[in-house]
Amino acid sequence: MYLLAGILDFFTSLNGIFYTLAYVVGGIPFGLLYGKYLGGVDIRQVGSGSIGATNVLRALKESNPKIAKKIAILTMLSDALKGVVIIMIAKAFGVSFEAQWMMALLAVVGHCFSPFLKLEGGKGVATCVGVVAVFLPLEAILGLVVWFVVGKLLKISSLASLFGVICGIGFSFFLHPEIPHITTHTPLVLMLLLILYKHIPNIIRLIQRKEQKVI
C-alpha cells in the first residue's frame, strides 16, 4: 500500500506529471506519421526502418520524390521541437532546472524507446539537439554546424549526426565547465551514450564501409 501510494504521489506531483509528458510527447513518432499520412509509406518497411528524418527522406524519394525533402525537414523540426515545447511549458509552471534537465533526457529516451512503438524508436539526434538548445544554445548551434559540414562533405547521415552530437556535447565541457544551475554534465553524457547505443548498427556498417550515403 505504501509503495502504491508513493507511486501515485509521484505521478500526480508537478514534476511527475511533466516527466511523464516529456517521455510520452518525446515518443510521438512524427516521421512514421508523416510518412504514412502525407507520403503513403510505412517508413519502418524501407531502408534502415528508422523513424527519423533521414529514413523519411530515403523512403519518400522512392515513392514521392517531390515532397520527400519537405517531409524530411518537417520530421526533423517536429522531432527537435517536441521536447522543447514541454520544457517551455514546464518553465512557465516554475519547474526547477534540475527537473527540466530530467525532462530533456526523458524526451530523448521517449524518442528512442517510444511507448507508441513497443519501445522501438529513432536515434534521438534531433530531439537531443532541440532540448540542449533550450539550455545551451551555443553548443547546439556548433553541433549543427559540424553536422552540416560533415554531412555535406561525406554524404553519410549517421556519421554527420554522430560527429555533430559528440562535438556539440564535447564543446560544453569547454564552454560551460559547470552547466548553469545544475553544475553537472551528467544529462548530456547520458544523452550521448543513448545516441551512441542507438547508432551501434550504423557504427558497425561504417567500420565495414557498408553505410549508405544520402544522395
TrEMBL record:
Subcellular location: Cell membrane
Family: Belongs to the PlsY family.
One Gene Ontology term of the molecular function aspect: acyl-phosphate glycerol-3-phosphate acyltransferase activity
Key words of the record: Acyltransferase, Cell membrane, Lipid biosynthesis, Lipid metabolism, Membrane, Phospholipid biosynthesis, Phospholipid metabolism, Transferase, Transmembrane, Transmembrane helix
Main location as per UniProt: membrane
A Pfam family per the record: G3P_acyltransf
Subunit-structure text: Probably interacts with PlsX.
One term under GO cellular component: plasma membrane
Pathway recorded for this protein: Lipid metabolism; phospholipid metabolism
Organism: Helicobacter ganmani
Protein name, per record: Glycerol-3-phosphate acyltransferase
EC number: 2.3.1.275
Reactions the enzyme catalyzes: an acyl phosphate + sn-glycerol 3-phosphate = a 1-acyl-sn-glycero-3-phosphate + phosphate
Function: Catalyzes the transfer of an acyl group from acyl-phosphate (acyl-PO(4)) to glycerol-3-phosphate (G3P) to form lysophosphatidic acid (LPA). This enzyme utilizes acyl-phosphate as fatty acyl donor, but not acyl-CoA or acyl-ACP.
Transmembrane segments: 16-35, 99-117, 124-150, 156-175, 182-200
GO biological process: phospholipid biosynthetic process
Source domain of life: Bacteria
NCBIfam families according to UniProt: glycerol-3-phosphate 1-O-acyltransferase PlsY
Membrane topology: Multi-pass membrane protein
InterPro entries named among the record's database cross-references: G3P_acylTferase_PlsY (IPR003811)
Enzyme class: transferase
